[in-house]
Write a structure and sequence with these properties.
The chain has 24 helices and no strands. The protein is mostly helical and 574 residues long. The model is unreliable at 1-28 (pLDDT under 50).
Length: 574
Amino acid sequence: MYAPSIPGRKQVFLLTLLLLAGWLRLAGQSRFDSLLHKTYVQRERLLWQISDEVHFQPDSARAFRFTDSLYAFATQHGDEALALETMLYKIWYLRNRYPRQKDRILNMLSQVISQSNADGIPLVEAKAHDMLAEYYWFDIGNYELALEQYQQLDHLLQPISAEEFPDKIQHIFHIGSAYFHFKDYKKAIQYYRTIAPMKVRDRFAYSYKHAINSMAFTYQEIGNLDSAGYYWNFLKAFCEPANDSTWIGIVAGNLGYLEYLRGHFDKAIPQMQVCINRAVMDQDWGLAAGSLMPLADIYFIQGKLAAAESAALQAKKYVERSGQYWRNKNLFPLLAKLYTVKGQHLLAARYTDSIVMVMDSLNRASRELMMTRALQKEAINDQKAKLIEIENSRKLTNLRFNGLLILAIIIVLVGVYLYRNKRRLHRQEQVLKELQLKETAKELSMAQRQLQDFTRNIAEKNKLIENLEEQFGANKLLEELQQSILLTGKDWGRFRELFEQVYPGYLQRLNEKIPGISPSEIRLMALAKLNFSNKEMAAALGVSSQAIRVTWHRLRKKAGLQEEMRLEEWASRL
């Protein structure tokens, strides 16, 4: 009997894995579907979730497999913005996990920028510019290239509102902070101030608070304490509804320091104490030291030496814990003052010397930073100059090429024109020649007919004379008829003209072949050429047949012909 087999544990486990993989694939597909062809704000939250999944994925193969599948899905469905956004996730992952792949990262970012610009996707282009600027700044250390990217980012962001692109707050904060870093406070404030009226989402609250705090600090640096106080109170009002105790403590310390600068010590002390307490709770030792030092100075001014010493030494301990070396520029003068008051002059002198060393170190670092930026700017300008030179050279080459091309075209056009004109003239000449040939042929044909008519007329009249002479003998009518046949001077002129048309150059050749030939002999040869018989020649010339024979005999001698050569044959050959 047949019975179905029961699957083992291994088979059940594999089946479960297959079902789970299929469910995850369907779930992922469904999540991808919800991203398609949405505005940035509509898919922002889900994009951040996907971004976090990629960034915090320890397995790079899985991370790249995920980004590649999302990119393929977006491309397949024609969502170019989503595809380019996915490329940014991959670039971010490469930057954090494989920072040495500099060329690959830069090429990918350039590709995203050019593609998003070509496709008209400014939000993705802005994110790519911001990422490239940060990469230049923090990973490569090329501040000038970073600032160039920030300038392009600023240009992109101007027509875009924070409502349609919440990342704008973070991007502007980055731009402002870059200028703040180089103490270009005027530009830094310009960017920070644009952030203040913006509506901020939770994810960008960090950048928003830092921007307002930095703006207030910038105003303090340029001596505008009222504006600094205004924006710190503004920030305080922003943080209090959310009970953001960390930032409330930071603002309290900054407001306390502001009162310290104004000499309002009673207002300064409680604010600084709030900051110190919160900073210690958060283990932000640098922040705690930052409020302890002006607090210690206030105690010195008030003559509270013990409280001043306690605050100063506590500040020293926190500075050491924080590792923020630059804070020693405020700490060492305080300690030198403390040990001077206590009469420990050697220790006070050491801290005084340390003040010089710290300030020299900080100033040197600042100069090096400025020098680095100056060199980078010079290098970029040199590169731009070379690119301009190359571009100008290329333009000049193109201009020369185009000039030569235009010249060649003009030459070709002139050549074509001349060729066509020559052909036209040639055709006209041909037509003219054809017309002339036709006219010549017509004239020749007419001359031939007239010459034939003349010859036939003589032959017919001569025959008629012979017949009449046989029948009636010589008479006056017959004599008149004989006179009409004669080739007179006037008739010879017309005859010669017709003969020359039909047989051009014949008479000239006679003069060349037979030197000393007479006019009567020329007439004889002309009639021989026309195949006149001796009788017809005699009748035409008005001489006897005997005279024709004598003339012919004389010609034979002049031409050196043999006796058997017939006159007609020789005349036709000539």
